[in-house]
Amino acid sequence: MNLIPTTDAAVDESGLYLAASPHTRAQVLTSPCPVPAAPGVYGWWFRELPAEINTAGCAKRDGLTLLYTGISPSAPPTNGKAPSKQTLRTRIKTHYRGNAAGSTLRLTLGCLLSDQLGIELRLVGSGKRLTFVAGEKVLSEWMAENALVSWVLNPEPWVLEHQLISSLDVPLNLDANAHNSFFPTLKAARQSARDRARELPVVPNPGVGGR
Q: How far is CA 129 from the centre of its chain?
């Protein structure tokens, strides 16, 4: 499989994506927010790795390692439903201060860091949602220290995301990333946390996420 972008446009877009400046949680959540309310692709860079990951093929800069790429909004539905109104700003803020039910990145990080941070995935409220309950705040503190985010604007971010996942080593992505060496470990960690949560009693929803 050819995992390298083959067009000049793809190479240019990948270069711009990797060159975008990473921002901390404090910078993102300041007012006015520096993240544009527009469509685009974002990348998550880490100081400390959330697990034992082979990062030999990962992009690195200034002591940071790129582990995850994402988009906002998602691709338009093909079933007639209204397209998402999410933007880079709303999505990145959700990753930084939401919960595992609304952020696949938080779910992944929490599952990988559960022993280190002393947090556990649980069913909450009606029993249909999975979060780390009070552990969401602990996870946010870890992200404030270790997780930075960069972004580039793009009118069709789902197209660029596909190119990036195909050409870059981003171990924390699952969708369209089964070729990654960390894929089996990450998939198993998430499934194990879900299975354990379903064996435990449902707990009240604190309703505050990772703020």
A: 18
Neighbours of 38 (CB within 10 A): 14
Q: What is the pLDDT of residues 76-130, one digit of tens each?
A: 998 989 889 999 999 999 999 999 999 999 999 999 999 999 999 999 999 999 9
Write out the H or E segment, with its range, that includes residue 132. Answer: none
User: Please, which residues have CB within 8 angstroms of residue 136's CB and are 6 or more apart in sequence?
Assistant: 98, 99, 100, 106, 110, 208, 209, 210
Distance CA 113, CA 56 (A): 21
Q: What are phi and psi of 134, to 5 degrees?
A: -65, -20
To which residue do tokens 């990797």 refer? 18
Q: Which residues contact 8 (CB under 8 A, 6 or more apart)?
A: none
Closest CA to 152 of 166, 169, 164, 144: 164
Whether pLDDT at 132 is above 60: yes
Give φ, ψ of 200 to 5 degrees.
Answer: -100, 160
Task: Note the pLDDT tens digit of each residue in 46-66.
Answer: 999 999 999 999 999 999 999
Q: What residues form DSSP beta bridges with 151?
A: 42
Is pLDDT of 5 > 50? Answer: no
How many other β-carbons are positioned within 10 Å of the β-carbon of residue 171? 25
Closest to 130 in 3D by CA, of 108, 145, 146: 108
Give the largest CA-CA distance in the chain.
Answer: 54
| pTM of this prediction exceeds 0.85 | yes
- The dihedrals phi and psi of 56, each to the nearest 5 degrees, come to -60, -35
